[in-house]
Amino acid sequence: MTLQAWLTAAGGAVALVLLGWLALTRTVLGRGLAVPLRAMFVKPETASYPEAPRPTAPRFHGRHQLNRYADGLEKCIGCELCAWACPADAIFVQGGDNTEEQRFSPGERYAEDYQINYNRCILCGLCIEACPTRALTMTQEYEIAADSREGLIWTKDMLLVDPPEDGYDTPHTDREVRDRGLNYYGGLAVTPPTRKGGSFAPATAAPLQRAGAVVPRRELPLVPPGTGDAEGEPDGDGGSAGAGDA
User: Fold this and answer.
1) In this predicted model, what pLDDT tens digit does every residue of 215-241 receive, in sequence order?
2) What is the model's pTM?
3) For 24-40, what is each residue's pLDDT tens digit?
4) Domains plus CATH for the chain?
5) Cβ atoms 64, 131 nearer than 8 A
6) Partners of 37 in the beta sheet?
7) 97: which strand partners?
8) From residue 52, how far is each of 71, 146, 199 by CA, in Å?
């Protein structure tokens, strides 16, 4: 091959490459074809599902669950705010009244019937934002497929978590709940750490000093069992004196 022929062939190849690059970057069809062309040179990633499923993102929105308190009482109070907040109308809540002999939640009412229709649910998370007691949360479980539409309607017994290790299943009696003395709506700040978990003995002597000391730091002081529960505790750095005076 002569030099002139080689230059002619090289010039034609360069022109062909230039035209191809212009077609892939300057035209709509070319930009669309560029995506699969780039993927051809990427090593494929194979996930062994369901033997070794890939982990989900930390804030992944999976199926819902109804939570309990540490002693087993249900957190749901049947307020129906989750149903009102649902944009897909996928939640149905039927509230009921607690009685002295049958108490399901610390409040006046509880969820007698609770259903989530996953045929409609879009897993947006607005329902858990509306829940005032954090009774409804979302897990990272996404395997909720079913063989029928009826199988995608989850009822309360399917959504409610099991009682904690040291808790009891509902219903409870008012006497049992009163004897425990837990503050269900005050959080850890007003519940003595010695009464959180284990045997739920009377804890009605939770001093206000502890709440004033804990809230600013968002942590619990370590109090040995049998000390500070009845007579109160010394003032801490978080303004416990002011809380005790109140």
Assistant:
1) 444 444 444 445 444 444 444 443 333
2) 0.61
3) 788 877 778 878 888 88
4) 64-159 (3.30.70.3270), 181-237 (no CATH)
5) no
6) none
7) 109
8) 35, 21, 39
